[in-house]
Every structure is written in C-alpha cells, then in structure tokens.
Write a structure and sequence with these properties.
The relative contact order is 0.14. The chain contains 16 helices and twelve strands. Helix 12 crosses helix 13. Strand 7, helix 12 and strand 8 form a beta-alpha-beta unit. The chain folds into two domains: 177 residues, glycerate kinase, domain 1 (3-Layer(aba) Sandwich); 231 residues, Rossmann fold (3-Layer(aba) Sandwich), CATH 3.40.50. The protein has 422 residues and is α/β, with parallel strands linked by helices.
C-alpha cells in the first residue's frame, strides 16, 4: 500500500464505475431485429444521446428519431436528432422536444418499431404538462420536489401524475407499434417504471399515492398541480393495459455492476472490499455521519472488515434544502463525513454522481482527505456553518477537492468509496 496514492486510487474506482455503464458497451446486446415498417428511436436522459449513438453504430437498416439530453451531453448522430435541454429544471427546449416526441409516437403504426432509450434525468428533460398547466408550473413543481428530501421513487410518483407523457402515457401514444425499452438504471431496485418516470412503462402508483407523498413532505405546489392531484382524474395506465401488450424491457446497465467494477480495481491493489449495496437512500448528511462512524470502527479494529479496506456503496441520497448554499447530495455527504471524522488519519473518501453532475452544480462530487478539515480551518472556513446552509460546494471548491469529471454520458446514480488504511 505504500506505493499507492489513495486519492488517485479512489478516482480510478470512480472512473471504472462509470466506464462499466458506458452505453457503447451495453446497447448492442439488446437491439431487436428490424420491423416491416419504420424504426424510430425516442428517448430522454443524460445517457440517451450516447445510447442513440450506439444504436446508430450497430443498426443496419433505415432509422430515425428524436432524443432529449442535458446541455453538454449531446453526441453526433446522423439519423437520430439530438436535442439538448435543461436539467434539473425543465425549459422551453425540453417542452418543445417533448411535444414533438408525442407527435412522433402518435404517428407510428402496427408494423413499426419504437426503440425507447431512457436514463436518469429524463423526468426533467421529457417535460409535457397536462392541460391547464404551464412550463412555469412544471419548473415550480420540480424545484419543490428537489428541495423536499423525497426519494427519487417518491418524486417520480408525483411527476407521473402531473404529466401528459410520463407514467405510461407515451406508450399509449405509441400503441399499436412494438416498443423495445432499453434502460440505464439510476434508481434503487432498478425498477423500470421509476427510471425517467416510466413514460413507456405501466404505473402501479395512483393519485392517492401522490397525495400522500405531497402531504408527507409538506410540499407547496402551484394551485393547478394541487387541484389535479386532489381531483385524481385521468389516472396513469396500469399493468395489464393494452398499451403495453407489444412491448419488452431491458435494463442494460445497473449500479451494482459499476460497484463491482470498482471492487475489482480495489482488490487488484490489495485492499479488502465490502459493498454495502447499490440502493442506499436517506438524507446525505445522516448517511455521511453513519459511514464516518463505520470507518472509525474499522480503523480501531472493531469493524466488520480489516484494514486496508474500501467500503463501496451506491443508490441515491437526498438533501432537504433549508439553506441557500450550493452543492449536491454527494458533496454534502462528504462534508458531513469530514466533520464527523475531524481529521482522523488514514481515512479517505470520494462521492460522485456517475452522470458527472452532483445535484445541479458543475462538479460530479467531492473527495475527502485526512487534512481536509485542517486545510479548511486554515483559510477561515466554518464546516458546520456551511453544512447548515447546504453550502458544501463552497467548502470543497477552495480546497480544490471538488471532482470535475465533465459529462460521463451515462448515469447509474451515486458512487461512494470510503478507504481506511492501517
């Protein structure tokens, strides 16, 4: 271990995790045969443009389509149109592209094939309000959801019931054409109906479920949204609906596989490894404290694994926003961990979103070194005050401890690695 740089090794593990979910490696294995009629590709998400590029590379027949991705995440495609739009708050570009997506879907016939490409981020990018709701309403809804502390499953339940395209409604428009769903999972449990709010998947949840979530988190939504949820009209299509009678679904990349790719890197360097799971949820700062305590027990020789060790985990942590600072759940997790560890030697960590964006900032996440807290104090930073106002970005930026990966063109949710050396 004396020859290993912990910071570089943690970054190598993150890079291995994202590489394992590269669409160019996993799309081709799930492509169907060409139909009698047209082949149209539709999709949305941070990985969707890269997925579309992979489809084009391997498809040997005529093809067309429209895919919506985040600004900066486009890929050069010849036959499939790539539209960039805003994430996490929707914008006019996403709205217009969603309208066109629905129009294309409605044009398909029984001899046609729709290859649906979905990944994380699609819920914001594929935005089409129901009648009576405006784009401004959708923006307010998304902001309320993102600040609420709700899990991605809960947020997407609400989104489905406030949309004209999500929660299986796009499948209704595509029917009777054949649908082949190719999904990259960014959700706990890899449930297809949750990924991107499931526009072509049956929705087992109801308006009543959405009402309970809004009440649970005391969300303040626009009046039009509150009325739609209360009235409960035009329910999303459920399992067994004819809309899904000619469809198949493949989850082509999962968070667990990315953790296992990182595990191989760690094991090859002589570290004992433990995967806590790919589906962790909870408040980022609380999980950060829990993992810090786990690291301390390992360092003291009373933990569940011996040093030198790496603890890996995935899933999606959340932040209940109470302050006006900058930073996403990964950086907040690391900041809470840093405060709890208080400069304990030989403990390092990294936490990043595999899509390259932590929340709505330009960093993928942040890293922790044993001297992080001491370096912060030397330049006058107050870690606890910054955590209190959800300003983890302002803690790590002057320390040069933000992880800036740029677009990764995939999205299998959070990646966390905690290294404890002897």
């Amino acid at each position: 271990m004396s020859t290993i740089n912990p910071k570089l090794l943690l970054r190598r593990m993150f890079d291995a995790a994202t590489a394992a979910a590269d669409p160019s490696l996993c799309v081709s294995n799930f492509l169907p045969s060409a139909p009698k009629g047209r082949t149209v590709v539709l999709g949305a998400g941070k990985a969707s443009a890269s997925m579309a590029w992979a489809v084009e590379k391997h498809w040997k027949s005529p093809i067309s389509g429209l895919v919506i991705t985040r600004y900066g995440y486009a890929k050069d495609c010849e036959s499939i149109e790539i539209v960039e739009a805003s994430h996490p708050l929707p914008d006019e570009a996403g709205l217009n592209a969603a309208k066109r997506t629905l129009e294309i879907a409605q044009s398909l016939g029984s001899d046609d094939l729709c290859i649906m490409l979905m990944s994380g981020g699609a819920s914001s990018l594929l935005t089409l309000p129901p009648n009576g709701m405006t784009l401004a309403d959708k923006q307010a809804i998304n902001e309320a959801l993102l600040c609420s502390g709700a899990t991605i499953t809960e947020m997407n339940c609400v989104r489905k019931h406030l949309s004209a395209i999500k929660g299986g409604r796009l499948a209704e428009a595509i029917h009777p054409a054949r649908i082949v769903n190719l999904l990259i999972s960014d959700v706990t449990g890899d449930a297809p109906e949750i990924i991107g709010s499931g526009p072509t998947m049956p929705d087992p949840k109801t308006f009543e479920d959405a009402r309970k979530i809004i009440t649970k988190y005391d969300m303040s939504l626009p009046n039009v949204a509150t009325n739609i949820i209360r009235e409960g009209l035009n329910e999303t299509p459920k399992p067994g609906s004819v809309a899904f009678s000619n469809s198949e679904t493949h989850v082509i990349a999962k968070p667990q596989a990315s953790l296992e790719a990182a595990e191989k890197i760690a094991a090859a360097c002589g570290l004992k490894t433990l995967i806590l799971g790919s589906n962790l949820e909870g408040e980022a700062r609380d999980i950060g404290v829990e993992h810090a305590q786990l690291a301390l027990s390992i360092k003291e020789g009373t933990g569940i694994i011996e040093t030198p060790a790496v603890i890996l985990s995935g899933g999606e942590l959340t932040v209940t926003v109470k302050g006006k600072g900058r930073g996403g759940p990964n950086a907040e997790y690391i900041l809470a961990m840093a405060i709890e560890l208080a400069g304990t030697q030989n403990i390092y960590a990294i936490a990043c979103d595999t899509d390259g964006i932590d929340g709505s900032e330009n960093n993928a996440g942040a890293q922790l070194t044993p001297d992080s807290i001491n370096r912060a104090h030397q330049i006058g930073l107050d870690p606890r005050a910054l955590l209190q106002c959800n300003d983890s970005y302002s803690f790590f930026q002057p320390l040069d401890d933000l992880i800036m990966s740029g677009p990764t063109y995939t999205n299998v949710n959070d990646f966390r690695a905690l290294m404890v050396l002897s």
